[in-house]
């Protein structure tokens, strides 16, 4: 295993996916390496945009899942997680969906 800390989230990104002819590492080699070292793996292309956003989303989802399961405690000093300014946070809606507004209780 590559990471000495089980709570660290690492993603291996194979870049320049669009240049298949110039490939030096096969998908299978990289995928096997990632699996053996307990890493997430995606191939990306900045040129086409393929999997670029997904790499960030996949990493963020994994971190959030670890927080929700209790594996990571953002309150613990040295956890590597820092809350941002709540006034700057925005929930981003996936493309093609509309934001649902919460109804306020008039009790």
UniProtKB/TrEMBL annotation:
Task: Quote the Pfam families the UniProt record gives.
Answer: Ras
Keyword Methyltransferase set for record: no
The record's region (Disordered) falls at 71-107
Could you say which residues form the signal peptide? Answer: none
For bias type Polar residues, the affected ranges are: 84-107
Q: Which GO terms describe its molecular function?
A: GTP binding; GTPase activity
- InterPro entries in the cross-refs: P-loop_NTPase, Rab_GTPases_membrane_traffic, Small_GTPase
Q: List the keywords (alphabetical).
A: GTP-binding, Nucleotide-binding
Q: Which protein is depicted?
A: Ras-related protein Rab-4B
């Amino acid at each position: 295993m590559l990471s000495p800390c089980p709570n660290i989230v690492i993603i291996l990104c194979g870049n320049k996916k669009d240049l298949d002819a110039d490939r030096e590492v096969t998908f299978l080699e990289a995928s096997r390496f990632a699996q053996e070292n307990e890493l997430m793996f995606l191939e990306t292309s900045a040129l086409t945009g393929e999997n670029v956003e997904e790499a960030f989303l996949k990493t963020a989802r994994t971190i959030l899942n670890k927080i929700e399961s209790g594996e990571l405690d953002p309150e613990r000093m040295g956890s590597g997680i820092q809350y941002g300014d709540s006034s700057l946070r925005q929930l981003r809606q996936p493309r093609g969906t509309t934001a649902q507004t919460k109804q306020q209780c008039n009790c």
